[in-house]
Amino acid sequence: MSLVSKIDMWVKAVHKHLDFGVLRLVAMLAGLGLTALVVWDPTLFAQAIGGFGPVISPALIWSICTTMIYGVGFVPRNWYWQVFFTPYISLPVLTYIYWLRFY
């Protein structure tokens, strides 16, 4: 068995733990909610999170996109895209941005 297929099997096994519908629904609603907050009043949102900086803006866009990919149930074919769009990282980033906005 090649190294790439071992990595692929390991990534699929790790992501299998998050493969249930309720978490997908919650993630999808959280992503949609954050999108609505940004679209509704971007200046107020930017003020609440401390501004759209070079770190927070890409993290916001990436976490929303990744959460939507995860929420609809799409699984990328290649293991490296599965790692890039992993909900293990995007959900904490999304939660942190919510925390910045509301606290």
UniProtKB/TrEMBL annotation:
Residues passing through the membrane, by range: 20-40, 52-73, 79-100
InterPro entries (UniProt xref): Cyd_oper_YbgE
One Pfam family hit: Cyd_oper_YbgE
Keyword set, alphabetical order: Membrane, Transmembrane, Transmembrane helix
Organism: Photobacterium sanguinicancri
Protein name, entry field: Cyd operon YbgE family protein
